[in-house]
Amino acid sequence: MITYEFPINERIRTFLRLENLYNRAVIFVGQDSAETHHVALLTIFEILEVTGRTDLKSELLQELERQRLHLTEFKGNPSVEENLVAGLLEAIETAKTGLLNSTGKTGQEIRENEWLTSIRQRTSIPGGVCQFDLPSYHYWLNGSLDNRRRDLENWLAPFKPISTGVLVILKLLRQSGQTEQVTSTGGNFQKSLSGKTAHLIRVKIKYPTDLIPEVSANKYLLNIRFTIPGNLSRKPTQDNVEFELSFCNLL
Q1: Max Cα separation, the chain?
Q2: Which of 13, 40, 90, 224 would bridge 7 by S-S if both were Cys, CB 3.0 to 4.6 A apart?
Q3: In whole angstroms, how large is the CA radius of gyration of the chain?
Q4: For the segment 172-224, what is each residue's pLDDT rounded down to a tens digit?
């Protein structure tokens, strides 16, 4: 199955972006080449931009506490697996502790590093980090692998608490989804929501497939249109499409 996720509000959209960026940074930091470490640094700069909101940490803490209180209500409930609840509560406490122990503005060390700032400013220019533009950066990229990876890990480390909090919240959000098997008619699917709230809509399609779902939703109506990708444009399919649909919501 291939899964497509569509956030309904800006908060979940930000969380999904952070999850994607942090996972990508970890993968590229773990590689060996100078080229992949360049991409890792660019990704860290992107994380810095996304986490620039001053209220992000407090928002995460509030949501984690809200979920902790909700899960606590299930402790001792015979219809709920106790180990599962205990594991989720432990993950929440770990995420909260990490966020509370992180002081100052996230990524401030990068913002105050003049050398990194010079690289960050040049990355907005196409081809702006060539060796003749930033000789010191060229020297760093061609230097010791161990030193390069150590630097990247140090620059990425301040974002770990936020990433951990985001991952816990997204895990809870995804687990909240009730999945149903549905079929679109002629490539289109509509469902009345009748005021039903959802933070995230997940669409799963059997893979391989040549279809891409396009989702639009408000509090009244969900509309999914399946299109066929092409080199120049996408065109709607006329076929009926079977897929899995989940509405995920943080309580």
Answers
A1: 67
A2: 13
A3: 22
A4: 999 988 899 999 999 899 988 876 778 999 999 988 788 899 998 877 889 99
Contacts of 122 (CB under 8 A, 6+ apart): 128, 129, 133, 134
Q: Which domains does the chain have, with CATH numbers?
A: 10-171 (1.10.3900.10), 177-248 (2.60.440.10)
Nearest partner of 207 among 242, 247, 231, judged by Cα: 242
Contact indicator for 68, 99 with CB cutoff of 8 Å: no
> Cα–Cα distances in Å, from 196 out to 13, 201, 220, 245, 246?
19, 12, 8, 15, 13
The DSSP secondary-structure symbol of 63 reads: H
Coil, strand or helix: which one is 220? coil
d(CA 13, CA 172): 15
Joined together, the tokens standing for residue 249 give 């919501």
> φ, ψ for residue 85 (rounded to 5)?
-65, -45
